[in-house]
Design brief:
By secondary structure, this protein is α/β, with parallel strands linked by helices. About 35% of the residues lie in helices and about 20% in strands. The radius of gyration is 21 Å and the shape is globular. The structure holds zinc ion.
């Protein structure tokens, strides 16, 4: 029977708070049937886990599938939609082959991302599971003005949100702040309209928000997740906790772009600005972590020097700045699944869930850097690095 087997002699980080050492996982038709200690054989093929470790497939809550990290600016502004679609198809493989079995795209300039998602769903191409807002909503002169869906005033926001729903959006994304300044951003009323329209269509919401005022507007308007969240104070953290809002810190974005600017020899003054900005992001991350805010793994991959295939490095960064290794793994599995609303099937390894999991040589709870070196990746019980779709 296809995608049916038992993997024995394996230690399991279930994502749901349990760690099973020297256990076994029983997969039936791509779904986890049983998991636990000892042998679970019952006339099905047995694979030895060779004493290795497995985790649930990772879920990246913020990526840009159409973006090219080597030159994101011209790629997002100048390339044709056709070329971006091809790029998305290739980038999707980079996620899957690095252990990311589900992603939430965070928007692009046209419909390339949603076409890629439809092709995934129809099995035309291979890649992780995917959600997308299609295009983000921003205002005239605002952040993303070259690629977002521009809308000014509540009625235009309503129309733009409906357009995205009609195009197949799984989530509505708003640009709630500019990068560093408080000019040119959607008002709280405009964001509330987007949230209302999303709610009417049964869609979730996310906000790009980096400045404190933008974060406040988005949180008070009822947004479910704050992306980047790079300026947090105690008052807004209190509000975030009260309203059960997630944050997606995307530390990788500032970390890898800063690395690029240093290597490329940008002027000292510019580097100093970027360093200050990085410090503030880390400070906000630490504050949120200490306060117990729900933090989901997301990277903004596709932005400058922020490679799609290296997105799990975010876990290393999160651990370096205060998370335990278990917290980092949980943010990339259970917490991210809950944020995306896919926790019924993904994010933890339990009976009834999809058999999406990653195999590692050693225990990632002891050395988080091992997440950069997955040995095998299973999606729906299929070993995707070994079982090529066309030759099996
Ligand atoms: Zn982004």
């Amino acid at each position: 029977m296809k995608n049916t087997f038992v993997m024995e002699d394996v230690s399991i980080f279930t994502g749901g708070g349990d760690i099973i050492e020297n256990g076994a996982i029983y997969i039936e038709k791509g779904i986890v049937k049983d998991i636990g200690k000892g042998k679970k054989t019952g006339g099905v093929p047995v694979i030895s886990g060779k004493g290795r470790w497995i985790t649930p497939g990772f879920i990246n809550a913020h990526v840009h599938v159409i973006m090219e990290p080597k030159d994101p600016d011209s790629n997002i502004r100048v390339e044709t939609p056709q070329r971006r679609t091809v790029r998305a198809v290739e980038n999707l493989k980079k996620y899957l082959y690095s252990g990311i079995t589900y992603i939430r795209d965070a928007g692009g300039p046209d419909y390339a991302n949603i076409e890629a998602e439809k092709c995934l769903r129809e099995g035309i191409i291979e890649g992780p599971g995917m959600l997308t807002p299609v295009r983000a909503l921003s205002i005239t002169g605002g952040h993303g003005k070259q690629w977002a869906r521009i809308c000014d005033g509540k009625e235009e926001v309503r129309k733009a949100a409906r357009e995205m729903v009609a195009a197949g959006a799984d989530v509505i994304k708003v640009i709630a702040s500019n990068t560093e300044t408080d000019e040119f951003m959607l008002t709280q009323e405009e964001i509330r309209m987007a949230v209302e329209e999303a709610g009417r269509a049964g869609k979730k919401t996310m906000a790009h928000a980096t400045s404190l005022r933008g974060i406040r507007n988005a949180v008070l308007a009822g947004i479910e997740s704050i992306e980047h969240a790079s300026r947090l104070d105690d008052a807004i953290i209190e509000e975030i906790l009260k309203r059960n809002v997630y944050i997606v810190p995307t530390l990788s974005a500032s970390y890898f772009s800063l690395e690029y600017y240093r290597q490329a020899g940008y002027p000292e003054e510019f580097i100093a600005q970027r360093e200050a900005s990085w410090e503030k992001s880390v400070e906000s991350f630490k504050k949120a972590l200490k306060a117990g805010v729900k933090i989901a793994f997301g990277t903004d991959s596709g932005t400058r020097n922020n490679l799609h295939e290296k997105s799990l490095y975010e876990l290393v960064l999160m651990v370096r700045h205060g998370m335990t290794q278990e917290q980092a793994l949980t943010s990339a599995t259970k917490t991210a699944a809950e944020l995306l609303g896919i926790e019924g099937d993904y994010g933890t390894l339990k009976a009834g869930k999809k058999a999406d999991f990653v195999v590692f040589e050693s225990n990632p709870l002891e050395n988080i850097e091992i997440v950069m070196k997955p040995l095998e990746i299973y999606q729906g019980g299929r070993n995707i690095l070994r079982e090529n779709k066309y030759y099996n």
